[in-house]
Design brief:
By secondary structure, the chain is an alpha/beta fold. It is built from twelve helices and 13 strands. The protein has one domain: Alpha-Beta Barrel (TIM Barrel), CATH 3.20.20. The protein has an eight-stranded parallel sheet. The chain has a three-stranded antiparallel sheet with strand order 1-12-13, with helices on one face. Strands 9-10 form a two-stranded antiparallel sheet. The chain is globular, with a radius of gyration of 19 Å. The structure holds zinc ion (ZN).
């Protein structure tokens, strides 16, 4: 097969974006307009967990110049109850999002993984309401000793808890957000049909080496789950480029923090600003660099069709165009350092 210089893809879905609030909201919205649909993650400073918040959130997002449609999520917190979930659903939330306590930004309100069973009545209601339950699957603490578990092991060690949910709720659509390593990928690939996995551009295109910049820690590549090894990237890319990628979707996990906070705090916030116009070309470039095929069918499934099926969205009716045209990613946008800042991309999005 000859070198491809132009790619037309169905308009992608961004099914995991932290649209944030205030000035950050404006910025993330601007960079999210390439998507047909977006799933907003409700882990705000005050997590979204009431019908009033759901309604306010919709207004907050719609007050911007958006060209995407969006789904809203409510958070599975300690105080979430089945009836409250139902009220949130009636107010317009379609997704129940789970961040275990201690895993990531604003997860201090999340239910501990080892206590998730106490919330199965909420999951039961989610099933009845046909809501999607999607989670950040990591075990941050040893449940016996309370001691921290090393970052690279956290995702894999959450699998038994995830497995329990899957066994208990064969009818519930269950998401595994931002798969980062081979054990979780293999688990999702062998899981029943009601389970799907999300993959980010940074977990495919970056390794833990990117967290070191000339020997020192680079907070702009710090995220959860933490970046893994090349073998993990290769496994993720292989899965995405395969024809049978039906239960994998693109979850950009665009999660910006101000450069100043990232660079000056002793314990910098985790999350990568990963807008689609960088993430999507980075994925294409990654596939090429490791010698994997660029198949439009597989890419359209991953970026668009699979999410349409899983989230029951109307089909995309337009396209984006990528061209092979090298460019350097800017060092920052409005005080936020993006994914791949200062590095070369071989592809650019042209019409979107
Ligand atoms: Zn996220």
């Amino acid at each position: 097969m000859g070198l491809i210089n132009l790619l037309r893809l169905r308009r992608p879905k961004g099914m995991h974006i932290h649209l944030r609030q205030d000035d950050l909201l404006k910025l993330v919205v601007m960079f999210s307009n390439i998507y047909g649909w977006v799933l907003d993650i409700g882990n705000l400073l005050i997590p979204i967990k009431s019908p009033e918040q759901v309604r306010r959130r919709r207004e907050e997002i719609e007050a911007n110049n958006i060209s995407f449609k969006f789904l809203l999520s409510v958070m599975l917190t300690e105080d979430m109850m089945p009836d409250l979930l139902e009220e949130c659903h009636e107010a317009g939330a379609d997704v129940l999002k789970y961040q275990p306590f201690g895993t990531t930004t604003n997860s201090q309100f999340g239910v501990r993984l080892e206590k998730l069973r106490e919330k199965y009545d909420v999951l039961e209601r989610a099933l009845e309401l046909r809501m999607i339950f999607t989670g950040h699957w990591e075990l941050p603490y040893n449940p016996l000793t309370g001691k921290d578990i090393p970052l690279p092991l956290r995702e894999e060690l959450s699998i038994p808890y995830l497995s329990d949910v899957i066994d208990y709720f064969p009818g519930l659509t269950i998401g595994v957000e931002h798969i980062s390593g081979r054990p979780m990928l293999q688990f999702v690939q062998q899981a029943p049909l009601n389970v799907f996995g999300g993959i980010t551009a940074h977990h495919m295109g970056c390794t833990r080496a990117d967290m070191r910049d000339q020997g020192s820690f680079n907070p702009h590549y710090s995220c959860r789950p933490v970046l893994k090894d090349f073998e993990d990237c290769l496994a993720l890319m292989t899965a995405v480029s395969a024809e049978d990628n039906d239960n994998l979707i693109f979850t950009p996990d665009c999660a910006p923090h101000l450069k100043e906070r990232k660079e000056t705090m002793s314990d910098p916030p985790v999350g990568i600003f990963a807008p689609g116009h960088i993430g999507i070309p980075l994925i294409i470039q990654g596939l090429e660099n490791v010698g994997l095929p660029i198949r439009e069918t597989a890419l359209n499934n991953f970026f668009s069709y699979n999410a349409e099926r899983i989230y029951s969205l109307p089909p995309a009716d337009d396209e984006i165009v990528l061209v092979r045209e090298p460019c350097i990613v800017p060092a920052e946008y409005n005080g936020i350092v993006p994914l791949w800042a200062g590095r070369q991309l071989n592809w650019q999005m042209k019409e979107y």
